[in-house]
Amino acid sequence: MKADKCFAVKDDIATSYAQKAGITVKEAKQRVNDVVDLMVEFLVDPEVDGIMLRNLFTIEKTVKSARKGKVPMNGIEYETRSARKLKISTGKILSDKLNAVVH
């Protein structure tokens, strides 16, 4: 990761949520953790294809295929395994808000 990037972490979200909801930070952290745990449960469930928060974002499960490659410097060939990945797409409301900042 680049040093100039700034990410909000769960504690930041919980602190902001506590202020907005008028609850303690401890209570907010528990609620945020509960939501994150539920999202993880849905994402690892083989019968669920992803999570959609309409107009906000969609998290879709995908499979990255195995592939073969070669190291250019020494010619050694290698093969990567297939892997499950997540694809995040923005919904209309979030997309509009993100792009309003750019323009």
The shape is elongated
Number of helices: 3
- Report mean pLDDT, rounded to a whole number: 93
Q: Spatial order of the strands in the main sheet?
A: 1-2-5
Number of strand segments: 5
Q: Helicity level, as a percent range?
A: 40-55%
Cα separation of the termini: 26 Å
Rg, rounded, reads 19 Å
Proportion of β residues?
A: 25-35%
- Reading the helices and strands in chain order gives HHEEEEEH
Largest sheet: 3 strands, antiparallel
- Residue windows where pLDDT falls under 50 for at least 5 positions: none
Decide which structural class fits the backbone.
alpha+beta
What would your notes on this structure say?
The structure is a single chain. It is elongated, with a radius of gyration of 19 Å. Helix 1 (10-21) packs across helix 2 (25-44). The longest helix is centred in the middle third of the chain and has 20 residues, at 25-44. The protein contains three helices and five strands, in the order H-H-E-E-E-E-E-H. The model has no long low-confidence stretch (mean pLDDT 93). By secondary structure, it is α+β, with helices and mostly antiparallel strands. Helix content is 42%, strand content 27%. A hairpin with a 3-residue loop joins strand 1 and strand 2 (57-64).
Task: Give the key terms.
single chain, 103 residues, alpha+beta, 3-stranded antiparallel β-sheet, 5 strands, 42% helix, 27% strand, elongated
